[in-house]
Design brief:
The termini are far apart. The protein has 3 domains: about 200 residues, NAD(P)-binding Rossmann-like Domain (Rossmann fold, 3-Layer(aba) Sandwich); about 90 residues, N-(1-d-carboxylethyl)-l-norvaline Dehydrogenase, domain 2, CATH 1.10.1040.10; about 140 residues, NAD(P)-binding Rossmann-like Domain (Rossmann fold), CATH 3.40.50. The chain has 17 helices and 14 strands. It binds uridine-5'-diphosphate-xylopyranose. Uridine-5'-diphosphate-xylopyranose (UDX) binds next to helix 10.
């Protein structure tokens, strides 16, 4: 089976290279010539641990090729994965599906034998139906099958998540496609991944419902953390106590800043918009979005309180600015709300992120990127641990900066409050 991944962004590139590594022939297609040229040289446009090595290895052994020619690549392939972006529409909450439909039109004129067309991008319920309509205009329905196969890859863990998924979801009522795709994923299923075949619409909704549920879990514990702060309780105890109940589970119960990234904020809005279309009120998810949007304000109020309402001229350090560790992704990171706010209030901000300088802060007054933790925290009044990079997990603050004692606000609850306080630092964390 020859595979074609359309779109070499996060989803397409990771899935394409992993499929190639499993022994398949894969063509990764993108309309961005520069991106394809870079990939051919082994240069990876995104930061993802392990990705570069896999791309180089599979490109060298010729199982992985890159192309800008969509039509030719589709003609040569049996299974086509659509992996283009579905960003939030400007001025609304729904997903912008223009890239999906444009690609579908191009595919439509390249169907020369039976092909399985798969949406791997996150697409609202009924998108598969629309793609099928587009393809039917020029092609006999016997020559293609439109399937939903959502991805559940976390940034920073994407390769591992691809190889060891909890489940593989295939949305199709077509027996032949179901069989072919089960076979394609058999190396992962034999390692323990659950295989679930559903209707196409159900598979589309499984992806949105999963992300909305995870966002709800995080938001829930963040609100409980607010109550813990007022009642002298440690939210970590609550997470453990709740997580031990197998019906709840311990993952995604870590309190911290607002959730961010390329998926949760976009997908929670999109599922609301789909539900609106079908006259259904998803009130729980609506309040999750609202609560998450207010989260940065709550944490900034705490900063204000920690600094006795004197932010002006205070030297504040951010350790980590990306939305989570092991990624250079800044999309919807809470630092994008916090740093501009503090800069506007007159703070002098230094930040250090293992993925380096961020353009997002280039126009802000008194915001400087530093190239080491030490440089970033020297002379600081307040050090905010914003992202849970391993680099920040065992800093010896006392040894690193001898002269001045600063306050630490650990937004990821990495450190033990007693240990840090024993070193003579004032320490604040979330939900404690
Ligand atoms: C997510 C989903 O996990 C993945 O399955 C989907 O396909 C894409 O979206 P990703 O956005 O890469 O993946 O990151 P994830 O690890 O899920 O974290 C999302 C956000 O939630 C981050 O801002 C993270 O810091 C936050 N988070 C996560 C918490 O605040 N607490 C937690 O306990 C877990």
């Amino acid at each position: 089976m020859k595979l074609c991944m359309i779109g070499t962004g996060y989803v397409g590139l990771v899935s394409g290279v992993c499929f190639a590594d499993l022994g398949n022939e894969v063509i990764c297609v993108d309309n961005n010539i520069n991106k394809i040229d870079l990939l051919k040289k082994g240069k990876i446009p995104i930061y993802e641990p392990g990705l570069s090595e896999l791309v180089i290895k599979n490109y060298k052994n010729k199982r992985l090729t890159f192309s800008t020619n969509l039509k030719k690549s589709v003609k040569e392939s049996d299974i086509i994965f659509i992996c283009v972006g579905t960003p939030t529409k400007k001025g609304g909450g729904s997903a912008d599906l223009s890239q999906i439909y444009n690609v579908s039109k191009e595919i439509s004129s390249s169907i020369n034998k039976f092909k399985i067309i798969i949406t791997k991008s996150t697409v609202p319920v009924t998108t598969g139906d629309e793609i099928e309509k587009i393809l039917s205009k020029r092609n006999n329905k016997k020559n293609f099958s439109v399937v939903s196969n959502p991805e559940f890859l976390r940034e920073g863990e994407a390769i591992r998540d691809f190889i060891y998924p909890d489940r593989v979801v295939i949305g199709t009522n077509d027996k032949r496609s179901g069989r072919i795709l089960k076979n394609l994923y058999s190396p992962l299923i034999s390692k323990g991944a659950s295989f679930l075949q559903t209707s196409r619409r159900a598979a589309e909704l499984i992806k949105y419902a999963s992300n909305a549920f995870l966002a709800t879990k995080i938001t829930f514990i963040n609100e409980i953390a607010n109550l813990c702060e007022k009642t002298g309780i440690n939210v970590e105890d609550i997470s453990i106590g709740m997580g031990l109940d197998k019906r709840i589970g311990s993952r995604f119960l870590r309190a911290g800043p607002a959730y961010g990234g390329s998926c949760f904020p976009k997908d929670t809005k999109a599922i609301i918009s789909t539900a609106d279309k079908f006259k259904t009120n998803l009130s729980v998810i609506k309040s999750v979005i609202k609560s998450n949007e207010n989260r940065s304000k709550i944490l900034l109020d705490r900063v204000n309180q920690i600094l006795n309402k004197k932010i002006r001229n205070k030297k504040i350090t951010f350790l980590g600015v990306t939305f989570k560790a092991n990624t250079d992704d800044m999309r919807d990171s809470s630092s994008l709300k916090m740093i501009p706010y503090l800069s506007k209030k007159g703070a002098i901000i230094k930040y250090f992120d293992p993925t380096g300088y961020k353009n997002e802060f280039s126009k802000l007054k008194n915001v400087i990127c530093k190239s080491s933790i030490k440089e970033a925290i020297q002379g600081s009044d307040l050090v905010i641990i914003h992202t849970e990079w391993n680099d920040f997990k065992s800093i010896n603050f006392k040894n690193l900066v001898k002269s001045k004692k600063f306050i630490i606000y650990d937004m990821r609850n990495i450190y033990s409050s007693t240990k840090i306080k024993d070193q003579g630092f004032k320490y604040f964390s979330v939900g404690q």
